[in-house]
Structures are given as structure tokens and as C-alpha cells.
């Protein structure tokens, strides 16, 4: 079947930017790109009605696909992956910081179990950086085609994985092993919406060192105090001063705004207070916020 005018033009634009692997995907599954990048509400045959909405496509360079296994993905899985590379806004080229939740990849036709990807865009003069929860990607080149703005990036933006694989990717295996050793792996993986306040490895080390003579808290109890109850998905924009969250342990933690302007989590004891260091690290079934103390 011949490509539509839109898809054919997109192939040429991507080839020009050294993103020929992405261009090949357009040729193989044009319907995915047309669904997200061009309106199909009118028109027929190979020509689609092109939307005037400004969209940004993050196009990985050829090298990004080496060893990625993308050729083995089903059409459905490929659509999931590509959705993480489409921003339904145009980001002006000026100094500044563009932060979610306004800058989100929207999933209009995917199950609610798929989280939206939160990206931060740093624009500093002629340099632009895409910041994901796990990496910083320098934009290599910029171009445009019709209403579409195309930015090339050196790596694929990965789909969020489960709690344990995500911590492993963040070099926080010690924390992942602690939760797993508390016999909670099947519980966490089976939840359909979880918010986890995850202490840093240093925080776990300091807690263990301070409490090595005191065993009143077992691993399971400690771990349970850091996870919200099932179906409680709280992103950073929802962490407001004074809110209370019930944990899997059965107690509650509170969110407060500190005098230093930072958001904090207060444990059930009322005095253990942890700073929130990083937010909105996405999981396949929830979100992680990194804190600097064990609750």
C-alpha cells in the first residue's frame, strides 16, 4: 500500500536528520504515526487530513536502535514505545525550563494502566536537553515538517518498568533487595497503582548503622511504611501541604512544605521527616519519589 502524503514526507524528513531507522518504522507501520501525528477525522484513501496542532516528535538517531530489539516488538508494543517519543505541544526555542504536568505524552487510546511520561526540557541558548527520570538526552538536531517539529535524540526513551527493575537501573539495588527480602516482591508487582517513597541507599545505610542494636522493626514493617495503599497514585503535582496518605503498614504519612521551601514526608511517629529529593520516577504500575531518610 502506498504511503500517504504525510507519511512519505515524514520519511524524507527523518532520513535527512540521520534518523533513517525511525523513517523505516514509519514506512513499516505508518498507521501508528498517522494516528498520533496526523488527524484522521477526515479524508480517505492514502491521503489523510493533516492536523494544524503543533506537535514535537523526539526521533532517536540510528545508533540508538542498535541492540534495542525493536524489530521483535509487536505492533502494540511498538505503539507503546513510540508514544513516549511524542509531545503534543511545541516547545518555544528560548531559555527556560518546561516542566510537567503541562508537558506530557498523552495516551488517548491506551489502557489506563499505562502512565504518561513526564519529561523536563532544559533550553539553554542553542542547547536543549530532554530530562527523563533515568537519563539526560541532549537534542542533536532540530527540524520541522508541516505542523510537526522533529528533535533528534541519542537514545530511546524507555517505557517504565516494574519497581525492582527501575531501582536496578538507578543503581539502587540495595534498596530493591531490601524490599524483596521483606517478601513483598509479589505484592508490589501485583498492585495496580502505587506511590512509593524510596529512601536513598545512603539513608538505608545510616538507618541500619543507627539501629543495628535495635531490632524492634522488622524488614517487612519498614518496607510497608514506604508504600501507599493500592490504587493510590500520587504524582508530584498532587503532593500538597497537609495531605495524608495511608501506607500498606496501616499507618499514615503526611506531606508538608518545609521552611526551606522543599516538600517533605513526615512519618507516623510525627518527628521522622524526610526531604523529597526527586519526584515522578515512573513505574509500570505507579510512581516513585526519592527521599533522604527511612520513615
TrEMBL record:
Gene3D superfamilies: FAS1 domain (2.30.180.10). InterPro entries: Adhesion/Biosynth-related, FAS1_dom_sf, FAS1_domain. Transmembrane segments: none annotated. GO terms for cellular component: extracellular space. Signal peptide: none annotated. Residues 150-295 form the FAS1 domain. PROSITE patterns: FAS1 (PS50213). This is FAS1 domain-containing protein. It comes from Wallemia ichthyophaga. The lineage of its organism: Eukaryota, Fungi, Dikarya, Basidiomycota, Wallemiomycotina.
Amino acid at each position: 500500500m502506498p504511503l500517504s502524503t504525510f507519511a512519505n514526507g515524514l520519511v524524507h524528513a527523518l532520513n535527512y536528520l540521520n534518523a533513517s531507522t525511525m523513517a523505516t518504522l514509519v514506512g513499516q507501520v505508518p498507521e501508528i504515526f498517522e494516528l498520533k501525528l496526523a488527524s484522521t477525522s477526515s479524508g480517505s484513501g492514502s491521503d489523510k487530513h493533516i492536523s494544524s496542532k503543533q506537535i514535537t516528535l523526539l526521533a532517536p538517531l540510528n545508533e540508538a536502535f542498535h541492540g534495542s530489539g525493536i524489530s521483535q516488538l509487536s505492533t502494540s508494543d511498538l505503539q507503546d514505545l513510540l508514544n513516549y517519543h511524542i509531545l503534543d505541544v511545541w516547545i518555544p526555542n528560548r531559555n527556560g525550563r518546561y516542566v510537567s504536568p503541562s508537558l506530557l505524552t498523552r495516551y488517548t487510546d491506551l489502557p489506563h494502566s499505562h502512565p504518561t511520561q513526564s519529561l523536563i526540557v532544559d533550553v539553554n541558548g542553542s542547547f536543549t536537553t530532554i530530562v527523563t527520570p533515568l537519563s539526560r538526552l541532549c537534542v542533536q538536531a532540530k527540524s520541522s515538517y508541516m505542523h510537526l517539529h522533529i528533535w533528534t535524540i541519542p537514545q530511546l526513551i524507555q517505557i517504565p518498568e516494574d519497581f525492582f527493575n527501575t531501582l536496578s537501573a538507578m543503581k539502587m539495588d540495595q534498596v530493591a533487595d531490601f524490599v524483596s527480602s521483606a517478601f513483598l516482591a509479589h505484592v508490589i508487582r501485583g498492585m495496580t497503582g502505587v506511590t512509593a517513597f524510596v529512601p536513598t541507599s545512603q539513608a538505608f545505610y545510616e538507618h541500619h548503622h543507627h539501629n543495628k542494636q535495635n531490632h524492634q522493626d522488622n524488614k517487612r514493617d519498614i518496607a510497608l511504611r514506604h508504600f501507599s495503599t493500592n490504587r493510590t497514585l500520587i504524582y508530584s503535582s498532587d503532593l500538597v501541604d497537609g495531605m495524608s496518605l495511608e501506607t500498606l503498614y496501616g499507618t499514615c504519612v503526611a506531606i508538608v512544605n518545609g521552611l526551606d521551601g522543599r516538600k517533605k514526608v513526615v512519618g507516623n511517629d510525627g518527628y521522622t521527616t524526610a526531604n523529597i529529593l526527586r519526584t515522578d520516577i515512573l513505574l509500570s504500575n505507579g510512581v516513585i519519589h526519592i527521599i533522604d531518610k527511612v520513615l
